[in-house]
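The records we work with from here on pair a chain with its fold. A complete example follows; check for yourself that the lines match position by position.
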Amino acid sequence: MIRLLLTDGHAAAREELRLGLATAPGLEIVGEAGTGDELLALLASAAPTVVLLDLNLPGPDAFALLPALRRQYPQVRVLARGDQSNEHYVSRAFDLGAHGYLLANSLPMELRHGLATVAAGRPFLCTAIGLGLVGHFYAESPASSDAVRSTLGLSKREMEVLGLVGEGFTNAEIAAKLFTSKRTIETHRQNIITKTNTKNTAALIRLAVRQGLLPE
């Protein structure tokens, strides 16, 4: 059973999270916090196994909370939730003690998967950022694209889409660049997710590291 303490600086957002997770099997919400101080006050009594940490949580700064959580509650797993996909921002969250990172606009299904993954002791990175990191590398290293395409089983067009995803373009912008429809790009992105088995994005990152596409 995952004992979840969820946080968000906005009451309406917390309610939305609570309702979205209410029917998730094997999960119990044991507390909610709207500020960093509320989170710290609840930790001992709520005894969560996982904290869903809003990185925009009002004072103290959520990035200051991460090392404190790691030091005082080493048994608690932390899934950070933020609105930035910048790799330095995400890396900082992991460096300070997060066990996973999820974009705030991720779908409820991915949120549930992320919670289950970190609760099981594994790192988690949401699909959008995982594809972006690998796609960015492909865009910068076109010479390796044939080997990468062969390894991951992607078509040339899927590789183009992945590279543009890595550069931060939206589906509509990619469609304009490739002179096709937004729906076609959405189909390509879904095919990429299916072929690379990015239901568990950590597997894609590990594969990229093994192939020398990303630094360890």
Summary: The chain has a mean pLDDT of 83. Residues 7 and 33 are 5 Å apart (CA to CA). The domain at 140-211 is CATH 1.10.10.10 (Arc Repressor Mutant, subunit A).
